[in-house]
Design a protein that fits this description.
heterodimer; A: alpha/beta; Rossmann fold; 2 domains; 22% strand; elongated; B: alpha+beta; 5-stranded antiparallel sheet; 25% helix; 30% strand; globular
């Protein structure tokens, strides 16, 4: 069943509701051609029996556009698409704007240390869903990390084994414990996921020691290349806040594949 | 969109007419991606942004027209190097916006 709209609630109300619930959905708006302004909300899969809510005013158009919007949503893309009046391909009578709202990326911070509080703050600024995990109950408290979406007392490797299958390329794991007892198992379990970024804090010496320990538990060279260790870009950070900036800058640069040098030193377009 | 909902709700409680402008497409380089949104009231109050400050002033004027005429349409702003005060993106791209009254 398709196209059912809830009674007495506007599309905008519904958008607000879905944003607050952090649901993934696409808001489709006709921007050109009849009837401009018509809207539908498309879900990644069936939601209480419906694929989409609202209508663009033509059943065939609804069917084709909701199918395409679902593809855009899966890729996390927003943009315009053209159709005929009844959803025909290669026609341009109707132009729709598909706006994808996807769940925020996750940032899992392992270790409830001073640097963690700063990274939680910066992570929230960037729109991450931030989770702090530490096995030590007295450190892992919501009082210490009021901005975190979740503070979990658990062995980090256990937590990652549990929730790791939800990790994807947009997500990040930052291991800040610099204690081999915690970080080696955490890194091993993070490597078993599809998480996009794994950063591990520590001095050069700690790093060397950790690499050896990881090798001992069977992590090979190729897996090792996924680790950003020591964590962060080399911008001379000293304070927890500066370090947090260097970490998120590295996460962004890894995702975009950019050089992380000053733009004044490089050529070419700034935005891809 | 999320960052402008709160302001919109406040304005709605005050019975103000509102237009929403959204970036729907870019040609070339542009500071804000499709989905960047800005809301404007009939009194010219603004929430959100659709560029790095290059076209916001012009978008407010367009949005006021949209509110007045109760019509929705696409507006495009391209690169402007001829006249110092004409409106466009300084980075050389063209941004396409859809501006509509919040009647939905």
């Amino acid at each position: 069943m398709n196209g059912k709209t809830q009674k007495d609630i506007s599309i905008f109300d519904r958008v607000e509701e879905l944003l607050n619930e952090e649901e993934s959905f696409a808001l489709v708006t006709v921007v050109k051609g009849p009837p401009a302004g018509e809207k539908m909300i498309v879900f990644p899969d069936q939601k209480s029996g419906v694929d989409f809510e609202g209508s663009l005013g033509n059943n065939e158009l609804d069917r084709v556009v909701s199918r395409d919007a679902r593809g855009e949503l899966a890729a996390g893309r927003s943009g315009v698409r053209n159709y005929g009046e009844s959803g025909e391909a290669r026609e341009e009578t109707v132009q729709v704007f598909v706006e994808s709202f996807i769940q925020p990326p996750q940032l899992l911070i392992v270790g409830a240390v001073d640097f963690t509080a700063a990274l939680v703050k910066i992570g929230k600024v960037l729109g991450y869903r931030v989770i702090v995990c530490d096995a030590r109950e007295i450190f892992a408290t919501t009082q210490r990390f009021p901005l975190a979406d979740e503070v979990i007392v658990e062995w980090p490797n256990k937590l990652i084994e549990k929730v790791g299958k939800t990790f994807g390329p947009r997500d990040a794991v930052c291991v800040l414990t610099h204690d081999a007892k915690f970080d080696v198992p955490a890194v091993v379990s993070a490597l078993a996921t599809d998480v996009g970024y794994i950063g591990v804090m520590g001095s050069r010496k700690t790093h060397e020691d950790r690499i050896n320990r990881l090798r001992e538990v069977g992590i090979d060279k190729e897996e090792m290349t996924r680790l950003r260790s020591p964590i962060g870009l080399d911008i001379g950070s000293r304070t927890p806040e500066e370090t947090a900036i260097s970490i998120v800058a590295e996460i962004i640069a890894l995702r975009t594949g950019r050089s992380s040098t000053s733009l004044s030193e490089t050529q070419g377009p700034i935005h891809d | 969109m999320k960052e402008i909902v709160k302001d919109i709700r406040r304005w709605q409680k005050q019975d103000k007419k509102i237009a929403i402008a959204r970036v729907i497409d870019l040609d070339g380089s542009g500071p804000r991606l499709p989905g960047a949104a800005m809301a404007v009231t009939e009194e010219g109050e603004v929430a959100g942004s659709v560029s790095g400050g290059c076209v916001e002033g012009a978008v407010v004027l367009e949005a006021l027209e949209v509110i007045k005429n109760n019509e929705r349409h696409i507006v495009s702003f391209g690169y402007s190097d001829e006249e110092a005060f004409s409106v466009g993106l300084t980075c050389g791209g063209t941004v396409h916006l859809f501006i509509e009254p919040l009647d939905w």
